[in-house]
């Protein structure tokens, strides 16, 4: 192993995946609070709900939705990787390879999601 | 918690799992042990995490990837979904698991970065109150949802309400 800094974790894949997991987790949590509140408008009036949900249907928010789904998909795939590190006998040995797998799957998923989301948005956009 | 390093396994015999209980007393923030709660929280994060991957991926698929995508989401769309008890149960489970998973994650982060006892207490109090309010609000919205909302003065259906003909 080419190891010059004398550390297994700091500044390496293990640390950066942990940083990514934390940041995406906090971001998703705050969106979740907002999302429960905006959905709660269905108890106020149909027009209030439609007006606020309508704010999600413009080009800037579409980019934000792609960012949000990007955070969710990374957190989901990396979370499954953490479970494999914890419970799979060879998890610790292959944690790095699994991280590359997570990133590859993330790119494939996000290319597909972004293309579909943008296409559907542009089709119905006046 | 034994609070001693004497039993720590030497690296040659394999390295002890982190936070396994043998912590030098000078690094302990609290004299009390919370071992079983932390263990339950650790298990919950993994179990709820697996469930949330399924719940949220299907939620995103049904709401954004099929039909008209984001343009289909309006009051009528929500009324259509919640007319089916399966989607009510789906969204209720997603709400509870996601809020508890997220709240426990935020609790971990507060414990990691807020070093003063009083700061941790304040931040966690705000977190728990906020999370409780959101969970109760979301639960009530799902259970008291009314597709045919009426104007309180005229008794006529509100614009865009979904009423049986």
Summarize the structure.
The complex is a heterodimer of chains A (126) and B (165). Chain A has 126 residues and is mainly α. Chain A has 4 helices and no strands.
Low-confidence stretches of chain B: none
Strand fraction of chain B equals under 5%
> What percent of the residues of chain A sit in helical stretches (DSSP H or I)?
over 70%
The CATH C-level name of chain A is Mainly Alpha
Q: Output the radius of gyration of chain B.
A: 23 Å
CATH architecture of one domain in chain B: Up-down Bundle
CATH topology of chain A: 3 helical TM bundles of succinate and fumarate reductases
Tell me the number of structural domains of chain A: 1
Biggest contact = A-B, 39 and 42 residues
Give the helix tally of chain B: 4
Sheet/helix structural class of chain A: mainly alpha
- Main sheet record of chain A: none
Q: What is the structural class of chain B?
A: mainly alpha
Any idea of the CATH class of one domain in chain B?
A: Mainly Alpha
Assembly type of the chains comes to heterodimer
N/C terminus separation of chain A: 57 Å
Tell how many strands the DSSP assignment of chain B holds: 0
Keywords (chain B): Heme, Iron, Membrane, Metal-binding, Transmembrane, Transmembrane helix
Protein name (chain B): Succinate dehydrogenase hydrophobic membrane anchor subunit
Subcellular location (chain B): Membrane
InterPro entries (chain B): SQR/QFR_C/D, SuccDH_FuR_B_TM-su
Describe this structure as you would to a colleague.
Chain B: It is found in: Membrane. Chain B: The chain crosses the membrane at residues 39-62, 82-100, 121-145. Chain B: Pfam families: Sdh_cyt. The complex is a heterodimer of chains A (126) and B (165). Chain A has 126 residues and is mainly α. Chain A has one domain: Fumarate reductase/succinate dehydrogenase, transmembrane subunit (3 helical TM bundles of succinate and fumarate reductases), CATH 1.20.1300.10. In chain A, 75% of the residues lie in helices and 0% in strands. Chain A has helices at 13-40, 46-54, 59-87, 95-123. In chain A, helix 1 packs across helix 3 and helix 3 (59-87) packs antiparallel against helix 4 (95-123). Chain A is elongated and about 60 Å long. Helices cover 58% and strands 0% of the residues of chain B. Chain B has 165 residues and is mainly α. The termini of chain B are far apart. Chain B is built from four helices and no strands. Chain B has a domain at 34-144: Up-down Bundle (3 helical TM bundles of succinate and fumarate reductases). The longest helix of chain B has 31 residues, at 35-65. Chains A and B meet through helix 1, helix 2, helix 3 and helix 4 of A and helix 1, helix 2, helix 3 and helix 4 of B.
